[in-house]
Amino acid sequence: xxxxxxxxxxxxxxxxxxxxxxxxxxxxxxxxxxxxxxxxxxxxxxxxxxxxxxxxxxxxxxxxxxxxxxxxxxxxxxxxxxxxxxxxxxxxxxxxxxxxxxxxxxxxxxxxxxxxxxxxxxxxxxxxxxxxxxxxxxxxxxxxxxxxxxxxxxxxxxxxxxxxxxxxxxxxxxxxxxxxxxxxxxxxxxxxxxxxxxxxxxxxxxxxxxxxxxxxxxxxxxxxxxxxxxxxxxxxxxxxxxxxxxxxxxxxxxxxxxxxxxxxxxxxxxxxxxxxxxxxxxxxxxxxxxxxxxxxxxxxxxxxxxxxxxxxxxxxxxxxxxxxxxxxxxxxxxxxxxxxxxxxxxxxxxxxxxxxxxxxxxxxxxxxxxxxxxxxxxxxxxxxxxxxxxxxxxxxxxxxxxxxxxxxxxxx
Length: 412
Ligand SMILES: *Cc1c(COP(=O)(O)O)cnc(C)c1O
Prior knowledge:
Helices cover 36% and strands 13% of the residues. It is built from 14 helices and twelve strands. It has helices at 20-32, 49-61, 72-82, 99-107, 127-131, 151-160, 212-222, 229-232, 251-261, 264-282, 314-323, 341-345, 373-380, 393-411, and strands spanning 65-69, 90-94, 111-115, 136-142, 164-168, 176-177, 180-181, 188-192, 205-209, 288-290, 303-308, 382-386. The strands form three sheets. Strands 1-9-8-5-4-2-3 form a seven-stranded mixed beta sheet, with helices on both faces. A three-stranded antiparallel beta sheet has the order 10-11-12. A two-stranded antiparallel ribbon has the order 6-7. Helix 1 (20-32) packs antiparallel against helix 9 and helix 3 (72-82) packs across helix 4 (99-107). The chain is globular. Bound molecules: pyridoxal-5'-phosphate. Pyridoxal-5'-phosphate is lined by residues 71-73, 76, 97-98, 100-101, 142, 168, 170-171, 192, 194, 205.
């Protein structure tokens, strides 16, 4: 390696692949002056973007129904309400997950029950048997950073107990497991098109399911309780009217998301190619294991996790990698749900709405760091190396060489 520092490559996935294709579809919406999904100037031809995004997502995932909404968080709230969750119900969800994985459950009045992750950094399937109670209604898995959850094990364990399986695919559109897209394994799946995701339109989300009742309920929940003729052409409505929110996607957002969806396989192939270059160099280094990937053929490949046997090596390794201009991340301390303020207070926006209001002591067991020894241990042991759309083969080789060099210094 030369002595001069290589400049940091710019991280990011779909956001950095925005180009002509997105421009053309957005301009099409603007030139037609039709930014609203359900109607525009010509009543005989409704605007196409959201409807096309839904059809292409549905085909891509390999599932019957897809409904675009305003964000991944909205999709989660809609999905939980669509499967009928409410006060008194429990949902098992990893302690290691994004904010809305917890808050969406609280927002529908149900109680998140936190579980451990395993060496895949995803939901540990054996946690279902440990945590299930007569009140459990669903398990919610997060496909964390492009690596699929072991869905065959999850679906088997959950369905044996009569539980819904919710798949949070927000971080991992484009990931497969055993030859099938994630999102096609459970009862309902959600996606996000927020800026940091594999495909983006700034803000956006989507609910996917093969269940007609869940689809109808999701439509009503996302559109003020309405069920418009467009959806009646897809699934005949059977549900009585009930109150919904307003989480519709606009044609402008859908135009960008659609162009991005059409690039997702190209982005994944790029990441996988660079990831394998890095892995060739860093696999087998003494004292460093890799995140366990249950199906490496389905991995999106946008983040490599080095798992250190010796915890004391993590901080100096991280610091030295950073000093070499290698983009890398270690746990910030705020990521597990039990470390976040809304769990520490146990509050909802009104005291009566908190699913924790009947606990005598708070935080109760199951909501404290000491209750999650494996999650605590695993998430302090890693350094994550992102790979982005703008990274080159030279960047990948530099990352690999830098890890090997610092390994000699820190672990040698
Ligand atoms: C980003 C994300 C969400 C929420 O998506 P938004 O579009 O940001 O609301 C939900 N779950 C996970 C795992 C996420 O990473």
